[in-house]
Amino acid sequence: MAVEYSGTGDPARSMALLWRAADREGRTGLSVDRIVAAAIELADGDGIAALSMRKVADKLGVGAMSLYTYVPGKGELVDLMVDQVLGEPERPELPASWRARLEHVARSNLALYRAHPWLLQVGTARPPMGPNLLAKYDYELGALEGTGLSDVDLDTTLTSVLAYVNGAASAAVESAQAPDRSGMSDEAWWEVQAPLLEKVFDPQRFPLAARVGAAAGEAYGLIDPDHAFEFGLQRLLDGIEAFIARN
Amino acid sequence: MAVEYSGTGDPARSMALLWRAADREGRTGLSVDRIVAAAIELADGDGIAALSMRKVADKLGVGAMSLYTYVPGKGELVDLMVDQVLGEPERPELPASWRARLEHVARSNLALYRAHPWLLQVGTARPPMGPNLLAKYDYELGALEGTGLSDVDLDTTLTSVLAYVNGAASAAVESAQAPDRSGMSDEAWWEVQAPLLEKVFDPQRFPLAARVGAAAGEAYGLIDPDHAFEFGLQRLLDGIEAFIARN
DNA sequence: GGGACGTTCCGTACGGCGTACGGTACACCG
DNA sequence: CGGTGTACCGTACGCCGTACGGAACGTCCC
């Protein structure tokens, strides 16, 4: 397994692609849009590890090298995929309370990660400055409008919430994928693991881990990653509420 | 870039490796420990994308296939790397206040991610149940001891903090790596990006993004990812404090 | 000392990857 | 109909993880 980073090619070319300047269509009907769509479909289904230029090309009934007429390389293709899916979530009028708005933003991001788990693997520093990223940023900032926070605090607060969502969504999404990926339910996994662990783990040495681990295992279903997501989100929003109140 | 998942081989073999049961040393001095150490060094330096069995073997002056005498495959090797680095942080006696303790836990995890950025890319569902993971869990639960929370809430609260740290550390670490990886400072990157963006971005359409983005850019240095990390952490802890108080 | 055996080490090979390079075949313009 | 630009893509290179089978070695028994 490795990690996908952004394209490092000509920034002007990348920007033109993101904003679909000079969008052509070849004689076989190939286009940037179709390539990006096929790539997203592949990554959604089999994970980003299974995304290859050859497979994208196969899916489109085209030779692998034909893709390079439209896209400079795989890095740039991933950038395009990212901006593309960032445009998917509907962005309805937001409710009146900032807290309900921010909750909506958080859950909508979770849903996006759920739909496209590979988003969690692509770097977010130096993001692809596409139209959908910008629209998303604008929309999400709107959640905090009217709270009286300074512009800088607005950005920082949103960043913190998105950081939390990223981390909690990682746990939730991975946990949801694990059974499929491994062909083993959580229960089955534990049934294999528990007796092995028992042989090497000394509860005397780590009493807290033993006690709390057992309690957490017992309560599984009540405290799965989805509930952990909501719990942490509410705590974070409580803290933000206090911050807003005292500002 | 792809993503590294855990080994999917024989769980008993994996467990034996993690706990170093039956640790041998070959005639060339090869051993699981030396392989894991070499792999960590490679991943720390060049990222997990640059970690390959052949490079690990080269580093040890050994043929690639020799590694497979000690380690079933790359997935298991990554598991071993993870448990190994989880054992690195010192775990001193914790301060008296739960809040100071939890802050310590959060910052210590950030430091770990900084030291081993590739940790952010490996899946955490179905974690490798090694000695150091368990020790870490036990130690970190200790931060919340004495707060009066139930065992289940203990686990959930810790999970939430770690989720936040994971997300915020992703941003901080990637942002710190970006200049090296791209050979371009943040300023240089913006100098290239800004004029391109100006051509396609309409501030009228996204007034909030334009205003706040400008303010955030202006304040950069004051609100870099490190400060965002601390800001969000304090908000989250504030929320947890309220939760503890009302429990 | 000699032989047998188990383990360690690894050369080779297979199927996959991203993509550089250069050629072919088509659409369009004159 | 001929010329030109571009879309398409076959081939090849250097990587990857690892299956397979053989070679080299340490150890033990006779």
TrEMBL record, chains A, B:
<keyword id="KW-0805">Transcription regulation</keyword>
<dbReference type="GO" id="GO:0000976">
    <property type="term" value="F:transcription cis-regulatory region binding"/>
</dbReference>
<keyword id="KW-0238">DNA-binding</keyword>
<protein>
    <submittedName>
        <fullName>Regulatory protein, tetR family</fullName>
    </submittedName>
</protein>
<keyword id="KW-0804">Transcription</keyword>
<dbReference type="InterPro" id="IPR009057">
    <property type="entry name" value="Homeodomain-like_sf"/>
</dbReference>
<dbReference type="InterPro" id="IPR003012">
    <property type="entry name" value="Tet_transcr_reg_TetR"/>
</dbReference>
<dbReference type="InterPro" id="IPR001647">
    <property type="entry name" value="HTH_TetR"/>
</dbReference>
<feature type="DNA-binding region" description="H-T-H motif">
    <location>
        <begin position="52"/>
        <end position="71"/>
    </location>
</feature>
<dbReference type="Pfam" id="PF00440">
    <property type="entry name" value="TetR_N"/>
</dbReference>
<dbReference type="Pfam" id="PF02909">
    <property type="entry name" value="TetR_C_1"/>
</dbReference>
<dbReference type="InterPro" id="IPR004111">
    <property type="entry name" value="Repressor_TetR_C"/>
</dbReference>
<keyword id="KW-0678">Repressor</keyword>
<feature type="domain" description="HTH tetR-type">
    <location>
        <begin position="29"/>
        <end position="89"/>
    </location>
</feature>
<dbReference type="InterPro" id="IPR036271">
    <property type="entry name" value="Tet_transcr_reg_TetR-rel_C_sf"/>
</dbReference>
<dbReference type="GO" id="GO:0003700">
    <property type="term" value="F:DNA-binding transcription factor activity"/>
</dbReference>
<dbReference type="GO" id="GO:0046677">
    <property type="term" value="P:response to antibiotic"/>
</dbReference>
<dbReference type="GO" id="GO:0045892">
    <property type="term" value="P:negative regulation of DNA-templated transcription"/>
</dbReference>
<dbReference type="InterPro" id="IPR050109">
    <property type="entry name" value="HTH-type_TetR-like_transc_reg"/>
</dbReference>
